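Slide 14.
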Amino acid sequence: MDLEGAWTSSETYRLQQDAEALLLEGDAHVGLVLHHTDASHRQLSHSLMKTTMADLSRISRVVLPLLLGAVLVWSGCDDPAPEPDTSEAPDWHHGVTYQVFVHPFADGSGDGIGDFDGLIQKLDYIDDMGFESIWLLPIHPSPSYHKYDVTNYWEVHPDYGTMDDFERLLDEAHDRDIRVVLDLVINHTARDHPWFQQAVADTTSDFFDFYIWEDEETVASFADEEAGPDTDNIDFWHEVQDVDEVQEGLDKRYFGYFWGGMPDLNFDNPAVRDSVIAIGEYWLEKGVDGFRLDAAKHIYPDERAEDAHAWWEEFRAEMEAVDEDVLLVGEVWDGPEVIAPFFSGLHSLFNFHLSEEIFDAFRTREGANIAERLVDMRAMYADVNPNFVDATFLTNHDQPRIMSELDDMDDMRLAAHLLFTLPGAPYVYYGEEIGMYGEKPDPNIREPMLWAPEEEDDLRTTWIDPEYSTDETVTPVSEQLDDEGSLLNLYRDLIALRSEHEALARGEIEAVSVESPALSVYERTSDTQTLLVAHNMDTEAHELTLPNELADTYTAIAYASDDEIELDTDGTTLPPASTVILATE
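Slide 15: predicted structure.
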């Protein structure tokens, strides 16, 4: 076999895809074809003709390790990985993103489960709202409804449609200038993934080292673990069970941060890293615009955070080599001091701490800390990467919905004003814009989207009987569209307001100290514009009295949430749960 020369990552993913097919296809003609980058070199092909599943499994145990070993040799011949581009992010990275869980969103096929066809039918709605991109929760084959345990990274879940349907979604979204961001779950696979099934069936297989193993005695010596904010699991080492075949005598335990059904991948293994890079390249080449990277913090354990940072730098460079405008937004559910170093590799990270600060302000009815602490956070991030993009949000698919947390429409409207006037790239969880409710357990924060009254709602999913968001508790989209004062129209107006004012969309923030602790006051400054924003977090009216130099500077109202707000240099009265934006002229 001639191994001279280099192999591209895209060819590596084709090899990996065919390798997975060995375990997925069953009785079928399965071809393994390795395409060399130099056309003058011989094309090596190995065809496996019709065979039984038992024979296929036996053959695969011989062939796959050889193929994976070859991948390592060839990938070792590759040129050094490119460096990540930390220059100014593309404009769309700073836009407003709509978080869509396809499963409950819109049912185009009538089977009760959301799908690509239903989502396509609602792209005009998403576009009209002003969202510039959509983040799709996982769409890959999976044994669970949420699909955060993937069994095949190269396909889409049949519940959602075919690959042709997904490609049509990409085309339709791009026709409307809407970018599509996929949730990429690479910290772990499903226990049902062929990699793991092969690993436990044959510990001499190269797939065994795709996962993290320890002897039972070693595991017993570990100190008790504590659950993090992103999991309730405290038992991280799992006995092998619920698999098709286990090698006799296998007494090791595998690491699974979230639970035993999600074994963590071993990123110390170059074959794992190459496979993940190839997966990313595959979807970018298909037309996807970026990835939300699930559990980005957990690629390595906390004590090896620097290795995690280095991995994401490598991954970013490889993805930017395919698409220089790609967006990588990471989930690091922790404080800003832990989040900040990840900006060396990731364009954007979710600001969980800001979400907590906003909730604290509603609990205490004091708003001064929001801007002050955000200024400190942004300074930490800028020290790592001056061109960071702060991904801001109120709540997401893992948290009780904000409407349930606040349980007050005036507060909900004020929360929206905070989200769209603070710096960052805002994310809106589907249904937030119509005031959907939802509390734990997780399925109840992922209830069906309400498009119209139930008897008229042809696209409403029925995958779960809703407990919180029903026709009795939530006004559906169709009726809110016709109500000028609805929460939905407020979201649309605020997204438009943000896009119309560069200071709101891209400006920096400076906290402003005022006498009333109930007020959250800050300046937003861009190259071309300066605005002053003030929110009253209280249930009572408060006076906004600015320092003299600011009172002389901000002499006009650019926006007011309440018609009763009038600018007064001696003190502007802000009604309860209200917002005013002041301009220089």
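Speaker note: Residues 296 and 331 are 5 Å apart (CA to CA).
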